[in-house]
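Researcher: We're teaching a course module on how sequence relates to structure. For the next exercise, students receive a sequence and then see the predicted structure as tokens, so they can try to spot secondary structure elements on their own. Here is the exercise chain.
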Amino acid sequence: MNALLSTASATAGFGAPYPNATFISAVGHERCYTRYSLITRDPEDEVEAFYEAEGKSAHATMTTSRNPAIPDFRPLSFVHKPELMMFVMLDRNDGKTTVNVRYRTAAKPSC
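Model: And here is the predicted structure for the students to work with:
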């Protein structure tokens, strides 16, 4: 199945894609991270709550640095030890939320 056209699965776990979204880029690997991009009609609050729950279940601390001047853009980061990290960027535009995710679940010697 074409990853660009498939709906994100509801696979559980740290870094799992938001379930009510469609991939807009193939899952890729960049050095120590896995990355993907999704799009959904769901509001940012719902998407953020999904990733916040993922982070909490992995005992990761969430931080965000929202800028009131750019209310539809939300950067989120989750960290639990050096080997467990996730960065999520949410951007709301034209009634859709774009979700960009980079995460890692294990530290490699080269990282």
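Model: If you want an answer key for the exercise: The CA atoms of residues 10 and 57 lie 15 Å apart. Strands lie at 22-30, 33-40, 61-64, 73-80, 84-93, 96-104.
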